[in-house]
Write a structure and sequence with these properties.
The chain is of the alpha+beta class. It contains 6 helices and 9 strands. Bound molecules: 2-acetamido-2-deoxy-beta-D-glucopyranose (NAG) (2 copies). One 2-acetamido-2-deoxy-beta-D-glucopyranose (NAG) binds next to loops.
């Protein structure tokens, strides 16, 4: 069963209200019921992809940088992080693959906007010799860029912008924002990525007590989830 156009419009409205923290309670109840109903639906057809909430999309719409699912489940770190991006593609920090013409065209093709966060989009070069330049001009050893530990006073070395286009070594774990930490870090009970993505419930399948080993940055990694 497909939702009628009316219900889709209602959902879009509810989403808008939700974003603005003004969802009327009765609308929220109705749309929750719709989503619950979708979840109970049987699988999608063979040429479709199923969102976590049950919505069916055309196949190949997952990890393409564009959020198609109402719940954003087609563009998540958990789903996309190990995708191999082919030739002529750009890898978004969370793992989606977009066309290699995407960076710096003033349009965000990546759900996390990493294609437009590149320093070169602003004509900047953050690596100078053996050093990396923080936003505020501070210089740190370039090995400290995107290593899971905040070294810049302004936190810039552990951000989507600083880590865009970075590919970790195969034995490492790549964080959602793009940082590289030890491969053992994944779901082992301690947070190693500054955004906590190595211990995400969605990735590890369980909520566990975590004690951060690193100082969390004051500049939060941007969240791009729809929900
Ligand atoms: C993007 O926008 C900036 C500022 O508005 C402009 O200088 C630049 O030329 C634009 N780049 C492209 C590829 O359109
Ligand atoms: C998790 O892995 C990291 C990186 O290898 C390590 O430093 C940390 O001690 C580990 N935590 C636990 C609880 O084993």
């Amino acid at each position: 069963m497909k939702s009628s156009a009316f219900l889709l419009v209602l959902e879009a409205l509810a989403f808008h209200w939700h974003q603005n923290h003004m969802t009327p309670r009765y609308i929220y109840r109705i749309t929750s019921a719709i989503r619950q109903k979708r979840k109970e639906q049987p699988a999608c057809s063979y040429n479709e992809w199923r969102c976590d909430d049950g919505e069916c999309l055309r196949i190949n719409s997952d990890c393409d940088g564009y959020i198609d699912c109402y719940d954003g489940s087609d563009e998540t770190f958990e789903l996309c992080r190990n995708r191999e991006c082919g030739p002529f593609t750009f890898r978004c920090n969370y793992g989606a693959c977009v066309d290699d013409s995407s960076p710096c065209d003033n349009l965000s093709q990546c759900a996390d906007k990493s294609d437009e966060s590149l320093p070169r989009c602003r004509g900047e070069n953050i690596i100078e010799g053996e050093k990396m330049k923080c936003r505020d001009g501070q210089m740190i050893p370039k090995e400290q860029r995107c290593d899971g530990i905040v070294n810049c006073a302004d936190g810039f070395d552990e951000t989507v912008a600083a880590c865009a286009e970075l590919r970790c070594r195969s034995e490492q774990f790549q964080c959602e924002y793009g940082g590289c930490v030890d491969g053992q870090a994944q779901c082992n009970g301690t947070i190693e990525c500054v955004d906590g993505s190595d211990e995400k419930v969605e990735l590890c399948g369980r909520r566990i007590l975590v004690r951060p080993t690193t100082v969390l940055p004051t500049t939060a990694v941007p969240s791009y989830k729809v929900s």
